[in-house]
Amino acid sequence: MPVTDISHDLDALTLTITAQFAAPLQRIWDIYADPRQLERVWGPPEYPATVVDHDLAPGGRVTYYMTGPEGERFYGYWNVLTTEEPSSFSYEDGFADESFTPNPDLPVSTCVSTFTEQDGATQAIYVTSFASREGLQTVLAMGVEEGSRTSINQIDDLVA
């Protein structure tokens, strides 16, 4: 399994996930740069994602929804802040309604994804920062740790 560690720090207001992939750096980058590949790993298997808009450039936006087992949809967006292909990108991640208008009742986080090549493999570190302890606790209660683990672990099958 690619995910080697998940930790959260209520004082620093962060969630950090570390993963190791048996694939070169560019191959891992390409998953995030291609909306059809991103759909295959963004969201747990029981909540597959559909990417609607995908602009992974600074100032760009990615919109998506995840479909639950009963057909219910959960909408979200990324406001892309930075990209440094193939080593990192950052974005604001938020919840939205069906028109992708941000949901003010749920937290917005800032995410930094960093990829480092290590002997032909790639280490990924995903750091998500929250504005408040309540925001972090909200997503923890929603199951973000296990959902992220099962989502990221799907990358192995995609790069095999």
Automatic annotation (TrEMBL):
Similarity annotation: Belongs to the AHA1 family.
Residue stretches making up the Activator of Hsp90 ATPase homologue 1/2-like C-terminal domain: 23-159
Name of the protein in question: SRPBCC domain-containing protein
SUPFAM superfamilies given in the database record: Bet v1-like
Pfam families: AHSA1 (PF08327)
Highest taxon listed in the record's lineage: Bacteria
